[in-house]
Amino acid sequence: MFANSTRYYSARCVRPAVRRLARKHTGRSAFSSSLSSLDDMDDVAVTSPMFSSMEEFFHPTETHRDLRAMLRDFVKNEVEPQALEYNRTESFNLPLLRQLGDLGLLGLTVEEEYGGAALDAAAVVLAHEELSYSDPAFCLSYLAHSLLLVNNLSTNATPEQKARFLPKAVSGEHIGGMGMSEPSAGTDVLGMTTKAVLDSSNNTWQMTGQKMWITNGTLDGGNTTGDLFLVYARTGPERSDITSFVVEKDMPGFHVGQQIHDKLGMRASPTAELVFDNVPIPNENVIGNVNGATLCMMRNLEIERLGLAAMALGIARRSINVMKDYANDRKAFGKTLWDFGQIQSAISTSYAEYMAGRCYVYALANQLDLSSYGNGLDADGTKLYCAQMAKTVADRAIQALGGYGYVGEYNVERLWRDAKLLEIGGGTNESHHKNMARDLRRGPPLE
Ligand SMILES: Cc1cc2nc3c(=O)[nH]c(=O)nc-3n(C[C@H](O)[C@H](O)[C@H](O)COP(=O)(O)OP(=O)(O)OC[C@H]3O[C@@H](n4cnc5c(N)ncnc54)[C@H](O)[C@@H]3O)c2cc1C
Question: Which segments of the chain have a pLDDT < 70?
């Protein structure tokens, strides 16, 4: 349906292309859900008189506005209808992820010459917010590929490496992710033990070790690895002697240890342990400087955390909309739920918290330079606040729906389970406390 793999977001053609795409989608049959027809996909914030004055804040340019419109249409027609089933069966919708390549979304932040859209952090936030509204698990796989792999390469690789790896990753022909965490080292990331040793006789590195919890680690149920991974490994005696490598599917000794099943949430996103058994990696696959990957890692963690915070916004907005709908429909004691103070409190408090998180996220996104470093405090802060906010709002939604909230058909129990991951992946709440306290302690008084 997205004919000819058109790059809809080249800087020159993005606006007309998005409009074309939006028209294309408009003729499609409407999706009907069990509870809500998603007519409520309209922004919850349109009910706020303040919202019109904040238009430019949430959509800094016309391109961003068009991008959101196109995403809403795509999410409504393509993402929403499959979310429940892929969660139930714990399976991964790889063809749908590849479609995001056709739409230009897999290379949002990549330069045009490698097939990307050359857009910014606000576009990243917007895409994650919208995809997560219907399917946070699908969005997590999108994040692992488009930010942890693609954006990292786009920011840190040489032009030759970008020309080798990015076009297929941006088109969706190759799908992969990033390997940082290990079975025995997560928060303590510099405690990693996966190592790579250079054999100078043939200019090839030998990598040995394991990476744990790797999103998109396998795309076929655990038989083989994903296509391409950015992998961090120890390359020297100091704790910070870490180098990043591109590891490609079918390199000898690179295989899946196990696919991790039965996760609490994010069940439609594949997670795997990856094993490196003396994997020979050519020197041309070293990204950045040898022993210099910690800076790249920290820089990419900023946009990762902002993307995860944006996912939390999608979860919260959906949960509020489900509560709004249900409060209209459900009657008790001869009244709608809207008439009960505790339900009013659940919905209004959730709205205020969602708007606070949304403003924090867009305030950071609108000024984040993807090639810079130094926004750690607020990247941690947005994720810390929004992850907990989304889980709390989804929890209120379950409560407001009573027994119906407790079953999959009404979506909010899935959103609540998915929200929990945002308190762990990309940094635990405790690691955000640790980092933020360090930065606040060092920094000047707040103004
Ligand atoms: C579904 C899923 C997908 C993931 N995808 C990826 C991926 O694609 N790539 C990747 O590299 N990783 C991925 N991860 C890993 C994730 O980033 C780690 O789980 C996370 O960083 C925490 O590490 P850990 O699980 O080893 O827990 P640990 O670091 O062992 O933490 C255990 C507990 O101790 C606490 N703790 C640890 N150190 C401190 C401290 N100094 N102060 C206070 N408390 C502390 C933690 O906050 C936590 O509560 C994924 C995880 C999940 C569950």
Answer: 1-52
- For a ligand 1 pocket test, name from 90, 212, 213 the mutation site with the most ligand atoms within 8 angstroms of its C-beta: 213
Residue 2 lies in a domain: no
205-248 pLDDT, tens digit each: 999 999 999 999 999 999 999 999 999 999 999 999 999 999 99
So what's the pLDDT on residue 48? 62
Q: How far is the CA of 204 from the centre of ligand 1 (A)?
A: 31
Range of the domain at 352: 294-442
Is 144's C-beta closer than 6 angstroms to any atom of ligand 1? yes
217 lines ligand 1 (CB under 6 A): no
The 10s digit of each residue's pLDDT in 344-360 is 999 999 999 999 999 99
Q: Verify that 78 and 216 share a domain, yes or no.
A: no
Q: What is the count of structural domains for the chain?
A: 3
Cβ–ligand 1 contact at 181 (below 6 Å):
yes
Distance (Å, whole) CA 250 – CA 412 = 40
413 a catalytic residue:
no
The whole model's pTM is what? 0.92
CATH number of the domain enclosing 186: 2.40.110.10
Residue 187 alpha carbon to ligand 1 centre in Å? 5
